[in-house]
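Subject: Lipoprotein

B.,
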Amino acid sequence: MAKINRIQTILMAGVACAALSACGADDIASPGEGAVVIPAPTPTPTPGTPTPTPTPGGKVTAAANCPNIAGPNQLTNPGATPTIADKSGNNWRVCQLPARFTETTTLPKVTGVIYSLPGRVDVGTDQGAASSNTEVTLNIDAGVVIYASTGNAFLAVNRGNKINAIGTSTQPIIFTHEKNVKGELTDQDSGQWGGVVLLGRAKVTDCLAPAAVAGTTACQRDTEGTSNAFYGGANDADNSGRMSYVQIRYSGFVLSGGSELQGLTPSGVGSGTQIDHIQVHNSSDDGIETFGGTPNFRHLVLTGNEDDNFDSDVGYRGTVQYVISAQRGGNDIGDGFLETDSNGGSAANNGEDALPRQYLKMANFTYIHRSTTGSNGSAMLLRGGADLTLVNGLIVAPTNSCLRIDSTTTVRDADPALEDAGKPRYISVAMQCNGTPYKGSRGVDATAVQSIFEAGPNSTISYNPSLTSLFINGATETALTATDPKTIDAAFDTTNYVGAVKDSSDNWYAGWTCNSVTASFGSTSGDCTAIPTT
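Prediction pasted inline below.
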């Protein structure tokens, strides 16, 4: 099914008017495919069967009209099809978003109303790399559902503008595709639309202008295409708004060749931006790919994505804490958990020693690896001179290599002159791998990778999981020695356990997520193949 969908979306890409992509500096364009499932989610849904969520007290009835919003560009009905229905007879009034929001406004939660993206929708206009103002803020109320009506549709929050998409633990905001609303997608579908793109004014490398100095206002990038979706600047504290309790489903549309959108794409986004409680489900490319900038991420659920679950490029520096990540159940598809990449060019502003140097710090994560054919060849790929510290993590990859490191610049000792933090660090990380757990290339061999991992305190390759419900710590995990992440970076929370979920009473993931054959998050979470009706 996934291969068929990919062919269909490539054919559709020939008429796509945008050219926005999701490849890193050294990225591998095609995600892997194959057939192994370890372990199965508990309980296991039936693969490929859409299961509409029951409607308490009756069906949804379409509202009579769309709400009025601030600004001259109002919501509209899409011509001959002003309503949309699912297979259970629920009906919603379709309120189509304008192509551009030019004033601060709010999309309210209204019974019987659903919002549609007719194509690319912009929040404000690009304010430039050196600006400091906020032009437009798009507020989205808890419980709002926004669907893409075409494949090349996506939401772009331009530099100098904000999004405040703030759901709750019981009323998440959902971004998805029209077919999901109608109940026509399964747990194996993907790549139906573009996703959400945040564009900010923080520092990046790999400048569009060949002579521009990386990390300055002269250094900006288009979002890997001629899309006029520019990002980059010199303000690492830039604020693009807030996204909390948000689901992004079935994204990753193929625009052309190696150009794909992913679920969430923060590009040049600053640390003033709040991103937490985000689920990206069944993207045909990465779950989240962050291009430069300094955003900190908390409470991520990454399920069924076909390339990397968290990919970071072009000078990203930030922290990520509490991550549940699982490759798709019922199908051997997916690349890896992390692709951590600094740069891969030969110019001063895009080489492996271009500054800012990428430094990813991640704590409290649990990753379930099911694919045997991902193009990275390992659950985690580190390359291009990037710095990395992982703490309190669990990697379950019994059929694959766990760790691959490329390039001698990635494993050299610390050098303050190059802002190089030194060799990667794996602290309180437990991994279950196949018979070839370590890989290296470009001057790094497997023995060197092994010595780096084994130098990490409290880390082990002899991990035999006792996880319950796929990702909840059991006796084995509880017995592992944890390290306080706050000793690594003050931005982290203090924790005393390894993994994303401490025990059965730790339910930060419940209610705002959706269930699929890949992972079940309990009875308070609905199905990814259906839209909530309350």
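The CA atoms of residues 163 and 454 lie 43 Å apart.

T.
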